[in-house]
């Protein structure tokens, strides 16, 4: 039996899936162009990882939280590398990690 999913986890899952859709759509439409040739590939992989993490969270699995938290850290590093890091990106990641940390004990 799965633990009941808190509403905040549902919101996080929707945020992750919508974000993944926007990333992949942006790459496929050509609207996300950067000087680094690896960046569009990274964005597609990031979208896939976000969906995988969202599935884990949706089913209240701890591995889902771990995937999302690790991905958040990797994203911060990538943003620094491409020169797009802002305090706002860190704030979003910190809020996401805080939410997952507060719900972690409810996950299997």
Describe the structure.
- The chain is an all-alpha fold and 108 residues long.
- The protein has one domain (7-106).
- The chain is built from four helices and no strands.
- The longest helix is centred in the N-terminal third of the chain and has 23 residues, at 7-29.
- The radius of gyration is 14 Å and the shape is globular.
- The relative contact order is 0.16.
Number of strands: 0
Q: How many structurally independent domains?
A: 1
Largest sheet geometry: none
User: For the residues shown, what is the average pLDDT?
Assistant: 93
| Share of residues in helices | over 70%
Order of helices and strands: HHHH
Distance between the termini: 10 Å
How big a fraction of the residues is strand? under 5%
- Provide the gyration radius in Å: 14 Å
Give the helix/strand class. mainly alpha
Name the overall outline: globular
Task: Please tally the helical runs, counting DSSP H or I stretches of 4 or more residues.
Answer: 4
Unreliable stretches covering 5 or more consecutive residues = none
Chain-wise SSE layout:
Elements: H1 7-29, H2 39-58, H3 62-82, H4 87-103
Helix pairs in contact: 1-2, 2-3, 3-4
